[in-house]
Amino acid sequence: MKKTEQQQEPLITKRLNELIEKKRVSKAELARVAGVSPQSVNGWFKRGSISKEAAAKLSNEYDVSLPWLLGESEQAGELRAEEKRLLEVFNKLPPIERNNMLAAFEMRLQELITFYTKYAAPPADENK
């Protein structure tokens, strides 16, 4: 049979290719993150399907939404469940409390940055 019409690539395969391109990772790296063999990753591309467990691991590691990766959503930047939950709670607050919470988050973030810089950062060259 002659291929005069180009066969459409499965949406999950498109999403996996987009993930590889945007995050600059290899299929071997996808396999490592998902905890599967490189042959399994090749199977995802051939079949156009992936297990939800493997997709969830990729979603968490590469910060993309699970519905997007599975082809259930059009937007790559769709909010994850925990982000939606945070927004729901935030939107229930009175406006003045929203500003207070933002200030508290920003202070806490700065505390964490300071802590990790001080205690978790690689030591400076000791020969200087």
UniProtKB/TrEMBL annotation:
<feature type="domain" description="HTH cro/C1-type">
    <location>
        <begin position="16"/>
        <end position="69"/>
    </location>
</feature>
<dbReference type="InterPro" id="IPR001387">
    <property type="entry name" value="Cro/C1-type_HTH"/>
</dbReference>
<dbReference type="InterPro" id="IPR010982">
    <property type="entry name" value="Lambda_DNA-bd_dom_sf"/>
</dbReference>
<protein>
    <submittedName>
        <fullName>Helix-turn-helix transcriptional regulator</fullName>
    </submittedName>
</protein>
<dbReference type="Pfam" id="PF01381">
    <property type="entry name" value="HTH_3"/>
</dbReference>
